[in-house]
Automatic annotation (TrEMBL):
Protein family membership: Belongs to the 5'-nucleotidase family.
Name of the protein described by the UniProt record: Metallophosphoesterase
Domain annotation Calcineurin-like phosphoesterase: ranges: 8-205
InterPro entries assigned: 5'-Nucleotdase_C, 5'-Nucleotdase_C_sf, 5_nucleotidase/apyrase, Calcineurin-like_PHP, Metallo-depent_PP-like
GO biological process: nucleotide catabolic process
PANTHER family listed in its UniProt record: 5'-NUCLEOTIDASE-RELATED, 5-NUCLEOTIDASE FAMILY PROTEIN
Amino acid sequence: MNERKLVLYHTNDIHSHFERMPRIAEALDRLRGRHDRADTITIDCGDHMDRMRPETEGSVGLANIAVLNETGYDLVVPGNNEGLTFTPDQLKNAYASRNGYAVVCGNLLDETTGQPPQWMERYRIIDRGGLRVGVIGLTAYFPDFYTLLGWRVLEPYETVSRLAAQLRPLVHVLVVVSHLGLSHDKAMAERIDGIDVIIGSHTHHLLEQPLRIGNTYIAAAGAHGRYVGELEFRYEPETGALRLARGTCWNTDDFPPSSRIEAMIRDEAAASRARLEPSVAELERPLGIRPEGDSELGNLLASGLRRWTGAELGVVNAGQILQSLEAGPVSRLRLLEICPSPINPCLVRLRGSELRQALEEALLNEFVDKPIKGFGFRGKTLGTLCLSGVRVEYVPEDEPYRKIRSIRINGEPLEPDRQYAVGTIDMFTFGIGYVSLSRGETVRYHLPEFIRDVLESQLRDAAEIRQSADPAWIEVRP
């Protein structure tokens, strides 16, 4: 029986950790060198780009594409960090410089045409010496956000069921590259026939050995470039059977960095930083940020969110801003350093009672010091709430959830049952941090702007800067 060999290499959720990319490239070069190159396929499963890094921000993703080109990928799937933090035109421009590999996503379409853009395919059939491998890509399902950028994102289970049925008769091996998360990967393996392999991402899970559910293998390689995944299969043409001969994740610390990729990244980083260095504002005095209380920079951002969204009041957590600003020129590079999260403004409607709960929690250390990960947040801890249009009088020594004596919204007492239009951030709508802020109605997300764009606009407004010195939190005696 003439068995055929197929080796799949995979990376995922690198999130612009450029410091890991030279080791990834060297690992892939050495691992692929153990096989006939015609037997291998190299895949990135999405979130290679992250706009918290100056290399990515300053190049609008082109630095990532340059590294992907030199590393030798055959196929990439856009994750939510590609699809939701770049506009379609920015992605078109970035992927136009790719070196021959396919961009594959079955559930992301141009809203106007109902088709994938020219630079993206629903699936790809790769021929490896007569062994036909079908690859379907899927990205995370965030319809409210994708619609605002001009995309139509399709429900992934229905999409993969339809495409799997279409491709199964045409290929020997069917692979789904999933930027959905491990629970969805398991559900697809259980519910959808015909999938041989699911290579996963999005939830940053590491499967040092692949899982097997029914006839489907599930693999994933962690996050941030710490691992490269390898799946070595044997395919029996006479029976159509696919057997896993080896499945592992290689720690990239065990490989030296590629000097070629290191030199490329140095050049890309210098060029990107140069693009971000011109001044966008000039400060007459420093503006501070404190995680535990009133601060001018936090109040300035809260006011900006209020104005940007046309709200009655503004609310943002202090942890979104990582450092204070010095007097003098402010560049986009500096704004990226102090406010790296690719988080969007949004307008929500919240009852007064929901606002009050969040404000009480903002006085508690368990919330101020709470570590937060994911959902766009690139800071460390949640921090208190910075406010605009709100004045809170409180007694620090009183019991939790009973510290506040009064809350006034634009000079009027807070009404518990009234709905207020609140300018805030998308992170809160996911139930992260101050959970009561997710219980209202989301009116509108603002894309593609990030909160650092809001802050940049605010820093050019002298009146807003002066007003940011007015305290929102007032300590009173018992």
